[in-house]
Design brief:
130 residues; alpha+beta; 4-stranded antiparallel beta sheet; 2 helices; 32% strand; globular
């Protein structure tokens, strides 16, 4: 991340269970979300990798499901917050019911996002100052 000057990275298909955080030896913080029960298969999961600068700007992060989590950051712009939604979209191999549940949760997160928030994936690249 340092070499490419990236402060925040979204991670899909982490395959970790539970929800938590840990620090890498290089200093980056990993926030992750997976299945919530201990005997769950090591599938799905999403996360964020934050530089120390992004960690300082982090206001809140929330688990929505093993496929969906959000994080809210302060920017250097006055009164502007950035809320990112990280998701691991179901593939065609899962049932329609699982897909419908995912999209309902995703739409619910989008509806709680106001105009000053930006959604992960809607912009290919933004140079926000954290």
């Amino acid at each position: 991340m340092k070499r490419h000057n990236i402060s925040l990275l979204g991670i899909a298909e982490t395959r970790w269970i539970q929800t938590g955080q840990f620090r890498l030896s290089t200093g980056e913080l990993i926030l992750y979300s997976g299945h919530t029960h201990n005997r769950a298969p090591h599938t799905e999961g999403v996360g964020f990798m934050l530089s120390r600068q992004a960690e300082k700007a982090l206001i809140d992060w929330q688990l929505v499901s093993s496929r969906l989590m959000t994080a809210t950051f302060r920017t250097k712009q006055k009164r502007i917050l950035v809320r990112l939604i990280m998701c691991y979209t179901p593939t065609n191999e899962v049932s329609d019911e699982v897909k419908d549940q995912f999209y309902q949760k995703c739409v619910g997160q989008q509806q709680t996002t106001d105009r000053t928030d930006h959604l992960n994936g809607r912009y290919e690249r933004q140079d926000w100052k954290l």
